[in-house]
Amino acid sequence: MIAAFPIDPGKISLSGTKIIMELPRLNGFTTDSRPYELTARAAAQDLTKPDILELKDITAVVELKDGQHVTIKSINGVYDTKGEMLKLNDHITLNSTSGYEGRLSEATVNVTSGNVVSENPVELKLPNGLLNANRLEIVENGALILFSGGVELNLNPDQVRPAPQDSAPVGAPARGWGSLTP
Q1: Is residue 172 part of a domain?
Q2: What's the pLDDT at 151?
Q3: For residue 30, what are the contacts with CB-CB under 8 A and spacing of at least 6?
Q4: Which of 70, 100, 130, 178 is most buried, taking the most CB atoms under 10 A from its CB?
Q5: Residue 171 falls inside a structural domain
Q6: pLDDT tens sequence across 143-177
Q7: Strands 116-118 and 129-133
Q8: What global pTM score does this model have?
């Protein structure tokens, strides 16, 4: 797997049975041709476990189907190159260019299918609310997002702004700050 990263010989070292690479970066395309970029502060591969790649301070940027982008960050991760499974843990954050923010403590990503599962509590800040759940599943590269286990959704409706007083029709009462328009 380390061979898939662009290699700068000055940024590779050997520590015991582990090969350590500083600042690895991987660019590619999803199965449906959307670009992604994965970077980490460090990657380590134990020569006795060649299918396992340990990652530190991970940042991934993926383009969504609508052209928006999502940035995923995690302090630690382990990538099983044989099973093509990425296990993220320790303070995972998701931020989209459309204003969504998510916080998870762990997630498993099936790199082949694009499915993501978190079996622990998740928090998603929406532009107009907050969603909490005990489980998250993203299927078909984000086409469907399922929340389960104690799902709680709090929505804050957009504040209705009153019409300026000079725009009220003649004879109609002026609308004040305390009234809502239908």
Answers
A1: no
A2: 95
A3: 36, 62, 114, 141
A4: 70
A5: no
A6: 788 999 999 999 987 633 444 454 444 444 333 33
A7: unpaired
A8: 0.71
Two tokens at 74?
């995690």
- Please state, in angstroms and rounded to a whole number, the distance separating the CA atoms of residues 117 and 141: 12
Structure tokens at 95: 């931020």
> The tokens of 143 are what?
């086409």
Q: Give the Cα separation of 14 and 45 in Å (integer).
A: 10
Tell me the pLDDT tens digit for each residue of 44-96. Answer: 999 999 889 999 999 988 887 778 888 889 999 998 888 888 899 889 998 98
Strand partners, 123: 103, 132
Residue 22 lies in a domain: yes
**Tokens 């984000």 sit on residue:** 142
Q: Name the domain count of the chain.
A: 1
Looking at the domain assignment, is residue 167 inside a domain?
no
Tracing tokens 């991970």 back to the chain, one arrives at 58
Which residues form the domain of 120? 2-155
Residue type, 16: G
DSSP 8-class letter at 49: S
Taking the CB of residue 39, how many other CB atoms lie within 10 A of it? Answer: 17
**Would you tell me how many other CB atoms lie within 10 Å of the CB of residue 11?**
14
* DSSP state letters, 76-99: EEEEETTTTEEEEEEEEEEEETTS
